[in-house]
Amino acid sequence: MNGYMGKILVVDLAKKELKDEPLNEQYARDFIGAGGIACRYLADLTTEKTDPLSADNPLIFMAGLLTGTGGPSFSRWVVAARSPYTTYYGDANGAAHFGSELRFAGYDGIILKGKSDKPVYLYIKDGKAELKDAGKLWGKNTYETIDAIRKEYDDPRTRVACIGQAGENLVLFANIMTEDGHCAGRAGMGCVMGSKKLKAIAVRGKAKIPMADPEKFREFARGAMEEVKSGFVTTIMHDTGTCGWVDSGIAYGDTPSKYYTIATMPEATDISGVTQAEQYQVGNTACFGCPIGCRKVLHIKEGRFKTEKPTEGPEYETLISWGPQLMIADMGAINHFNELVNGYGFDSISSGSSAAFAFYLYEKGVITSKDTGGLELKWGDIDVTLKLIDLIARNEGFGKILQEGTKRMAARYNRPGEAMQVKGLEFPMHDPRAYCCMGLAYATSNRGADHNKSDAYLVENGMGNPDLGLNPGDRWGDDKAPMVVLSQDWRSLTDALGICHFAMMSTQSIVDMINASTGWGVDQEAILKAGERIFQLMRAMTCRFGVTPKDDELPEIAMRPIVESGQEGNVPNMAKMLPEYYDIRDWDKSTGKPSKARMEKLGVGALAGTFGIK
Amino acid sequence: MTVKVIKGKRFIEVDPAKCAGCITCMLRCSLRSGNKFNLSASCIRVERLVGRPNEFDVSFSEDCDACLVCVRYCPYGALTASKEAEEI
Question: Are A181 and A253 members of one domain?
């Protein structure tokens, strides 16, 4: 099967049985790779009754079609399951070297079923897989876990994906970490992994990815590499990293602070990407085959949080979630928070936002120190923040409440409309009042509010795809439905390929590489249709798990204008944009599901019945 | 700290502090020697140091003939060729 390793590892963690199954060729053809194929398998293996923390919830890892093939930044992979955090469809996107090495180890993906009775880890080398005792690893943070496994095999090229203590303690938004602080962050995939007592997956191998025309592939990959290296996005991302968004976001009112109640904290300039590059950065790290190297290595040399040696720095989302959202702009402190959160292994966006919500409620007197176990939640308090991170990781005390997330907290404290989330997943650190397209993107993303399933705000900033017509517009316009739809379809496709969003190459290069790899002979229209097919299947799945049209709404707090700011008092016109979006997507207005006609047009009409679509 | 590989008049210097661990050099090297991407066939080896997650060790096998393909493709300037070097 050209383009794929052609094998899935199926693991029954209860019976400790492992077997190889051929990758379903039709699933690959229709859903391409990574999250697309994972979703298709999940459709077979779940029902609306599947309890996310039960043995019945499968956890699926899947590499992209192009992952590991040597094109620019072709490093990404996906892990998917029913989310215990949102209770809806969940997936998370990872990078570094795990996905590529999984393919070199001989597999396109892993399906994990059941639960182990005791902690185990999965070791896969050159097509052979074993479950091993993880008793000595249980209780370790993610850095210690990765190092311990690599030392055990005395093989520094063993790549590891693992959970920290948060996943072990069933923190609902626990994540899965790999080296260099890369995470498959959102929707609690680490919680599912912890519920299965699976501590880690280690992969190593030498297999080659079979290709229809390897010489043509290399020629196209070389061309794509030149396109990426010469683009301005690469320079910005290399020089300033994702934290470089702060430098422009300040002007646009897009560095949400004090729990989304102010658009920008003035001191944010002290922690921006440019400031980090000037004062703290000592190097970059990169994912497999990536010439961009957006990850920063920082050395904090002074102050309370000075580090003995350089460490990975926080990405933009962590910088803001555990920074200005709490009115903290101390680079040393945030760098330390990042290390803790990554070590414990939980989603920095959901956790930071939940902490900020708690500070917001505390200021309003809705909660007091009686609710917080004696902690006084004063904006900017670094010591209290350190205590909260610790409590979240241990799932204890007030941390037990924070790890439930803002939606459950809003219900608990009777503050409806003030949880900045959609479908139970917290907004990222991009404000729909700064970029109205994001209001629509958050409302309609299948796993909940998410900025990566549609990069609409990046499109508005000139980082879209001119080949497809994804060009900048008026960021406060209300004509965004067609752009958000196209952006979602495009990102569904590139995520299935395993391409990093920062690698800007022509669409033709991507088409050429898909064809040289698989021999399919597809064109741009066909791959975009695949992108839509993937998105609509994920929509059908999230509806299977209980999403209805009322879950496609923004919370009231997202619609409060902030006048004196780079947002200039704008709010997204959801009353216009959402119905237009529904029409383009052909979603039923009462159930929210894609129509049967649309499923048929996408070639998956046969699945309609399984989703109750008539 | 730099590591040199010397073959006749050509040598390669490595600045590990600039290495980002992307292993593009390994991909390019394996391609030249075996006509396929195959990391195990690469003459240049990039390995993340255990316990020091952002630091990499770069070494060369005996098979390296200092063809300088890795130097040409490193996006981070971690590899440089000597002044006397001639590219093949």
Answer: no
Instruction: Find the closest chain B residue to A283 by CA distance.
Output: B18
**Cα–Cα distance between A65 and A96 in angstroms, integer?**
16
Q: Does A325 share its domain with A440? A: no
Residue A591 domain flag: yes
Q: What is the pTM of this model?
A: 0.96
Among the partner residues B20, B47, B57, nearest to A293 by beta-carbon distance = B20
A557 and A462: one domain?
yes
Q: What is the ipTM of this complex?
A: 0.81
Q: What's the confidence (pLDDT) of residue A535?
A: 98
State which residues form the domain around B8.
Answer: 3-81
Chain A residue whose CA is closest to B49: A156
Tell me, rounded to whole angstroms, the distance of Cα A458 from its chain centroid.
16
Query: Cβ of B23 and A309 within 8 Å?
Result: no
Pick B22's closest partner by Cβ from A157, A218, A288: A288
Residue A353 CA to residue A54 CA, distance in Å, equals 27
Residue-level pLDDT at B88:
43
- Alpha helices by DSSP H, listed for A519-567, are 524-544
How does pLDDT run across A444-483, given as a tens digit for each residue?
Answer: 999 999 999 999 999 999 899 999 999 999 999 999 999 9
Res. A359: pLDDT tops 50? yes
Residues A156 and A274 in one domain: no
Q: Final residue of a domain: which of A365, A386, A414?
A: A414
* Range(s) of the domain holding residue A164: 7-204
- B27 min Cα distance to partner chain A (Å): 7
Q: A206–B51: do the CB atoms touch at under 8 Å? A: no
Q: Which residues of B touch A (CB under 8 A)?
A: 17-18, 20-24, 27, 31, 35-40, 47-54, 57, 75-76
d(CA A227, CA A486): 22
- Outline where A130-174 has alpha helix (H): 142-153, 165-168
Residue B85 has pLDDT above 50, yes or no: no
Asked if residue A135 and residue A20 are part of one domain, the reply reads: yes
